[in-house]
Amino acid sequence: WYRTRTETDWGPWLNVAVQGRAAIFDGVDARSAENFKLATDAPSTYPGGETVFFVNNSPGWPAVYGTVKSVRGYVGGTAVTQHFYPYNVSAPIKYRQALYGSDTWGEWESLLTSTDAKGFALSNAYVNFGDTDAPMNTDEFIALLTAMGAFTASGHWVVRGGWAYAYNRTITDSGFGHISLAGAVVEVTGNSTFFTVRILTAPQANTPEAGLNANSEFIYVSNG
Exposed, middle or buried by CB within 10 Å (0-12, 13-18, 19+), for 18? Predict the structure, then answer.
């Protein structure tokens, strides 16, 4: 038996039969019954707590087959969160919500995955550029970025160099003095052929040559 409570009052006792992982709500198996609900059924028709059921060729859901998981935590209201997990297909997990007091579903939206995240910048708060303080030229700098995965990620890659001069290299052929990568922010946009690299140097450097370019911005552009 179970009952639910609003802010002030308890509801009536209802019969729940638990059979393994199944939960029977007033005679309906809410965890295994196919097509327990239609896609158009109002949020308020869902029981309190969690329900899980399988969709078998019922119209209105995001896919022909799938598992629906719904959570209605506050039975006194109509707020429900619902996820749809497509069955046996490579497709995004969908979710929708009904807000408190509305008793209507919002639009289906997709959950982001690592595949979807290809359109986002990949970032790292701390890296070492080369693990040495050896000087390098621009070609070696681009080769280092390639080895670090800057051109094989999402098309937008942002990192910050670690604050250790002994583990971060310095670019020496800029024509404007040395560029120390210790503590620098490096942003890469594009691919290995067409790209823009932006360097924001740290407020201070460990050599006079690099110190002249502290707290500065440098931009490399390749158009093939």
Answer: exposed
Of 190, 196, 148, 192, nearest to 169 by C-alpha is 148
Q: Rounded CA gap, 150 and 142, in Å?
A: 9
Q: How does strand 156-161 pair with strand 170-171? A: unpaired
Q: How far apart are CA 6 and CA 12, in angstroms?
A: 11
Percent of the chain predicted with pLDDT > 90 = 51
Residue with tokens 């629906």: 68
User: pLDDT tens for residues 174-183?
Assistant: 988 899 999 9
Sign of CA dihedral 144, 147, 151, 156: negative
19 pLDDT tier (thresholds 50, 70, 90): very low
Give the whole-angstrom CA distance, residue 144 versus residue 156. 16
Q: What is the pLDDT of residue 224?
A: 82
**Helix, coil or strand: residue 67:** strand
Q: Which residues are registered as beta bridge partners of 128?
A: none
* Whether this model's pTM surpasses 0.85: no
Contact 48, 28 (CB under 8 A): no
Tokens 């670090």 belong to which residue? 148
Q: How far is CA 191 from CA 82, 121, 173, 198, in A?
A: 39, 13, 23, 14
What does residue 27 show for φ and ψ, rounded to 5 degrees?
Answer: 90, -5
Of 139, 207, 119, nearest in space to 168 by CA: 207
